[in-house]
């Protein structure tokens, strides 16, 4: 049988075997790209999502030039958002990520990078699709 896994195995696994590293085609109208930097340390994260017509994230890739915690946060968030609707993906807080990965307070900004990156990717996607959407204007 499977031995009881130590508490941190999942976390260490995200550091050692990051999921969904890579790139998606930026010119694809269904792809949104988020590129964010952490002023505290200069680390950079790029997160890309591919969204279907129903607003669901069907693919996700990241490239992170940063510390182990930033890489683990990226890897974790890619698994977390795959299959999610973009509205639900927007609700993910960096504190959820930090809690899941047991990041110490000094590493909180690394998980913030992941929250910022998914928000930035969704906003890029929405900007690209903006022309397709009929906006309702209130107060006119
Ligand atoms: Fe670096 Fe956990 S060991 S954040
Ligand atoms: Fe800056 Fe981790 S130390 S992102």
Task: Write up this protein.
This protein has 140 residues and is α+β, with helices and mostly antiparallel strands. The chain has one domain: Alpha-Beta Complex (Sufe protein. Chain: A), CATH 3.90.1010. It has 5 helices and 3 strands, in the order αβββαααα. The protein has a 3-stranded antiparallel sheet. A hairpin with a 6-residue loop joins strand 1 (31-37) and strand 2. It starts with 8 loop residues before the first helix and ends in an 11-residue tail after the last helix. Bound molecules: FE2/S2 (inorganic) cluster (2 copies). One FE2/S2 (inorganic) cluster is lined by residues 68-69, 103-104, 107. One FE2/S2 (inorganic) cluster binds next to helix 2 and helix 5.
């Amino acid at each position: 049988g499977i031995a009881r896994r130590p508490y941190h195995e999942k976390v260490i696994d995200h550091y050692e075997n990051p999921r969904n590293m890579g790139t998606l085609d930026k010119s694809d109208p269904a792809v949104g790209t988020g590129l964010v930097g952490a002023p505290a340390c200069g680390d950079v994260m790029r997160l890309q999502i591919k969204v279907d017509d129903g607003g669901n994230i069907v693919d996700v890739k990241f490239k992170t030039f940063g510390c182990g915690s930033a890489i683990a946060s990226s890897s974790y968030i890619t698994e977390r958002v795959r299959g999610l609707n973009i509205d639900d993906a927007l609700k993910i807080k960096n504190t959820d990520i930090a809690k899941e990965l047991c990041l110490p307070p000094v590493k909180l900004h690394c998980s913030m990078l992941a929250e910022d990156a998914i928000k930035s990717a969704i906003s890029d996607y929405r900007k690209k699709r903006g022309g397709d959407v009929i906006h309702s204007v209130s107060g006119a």
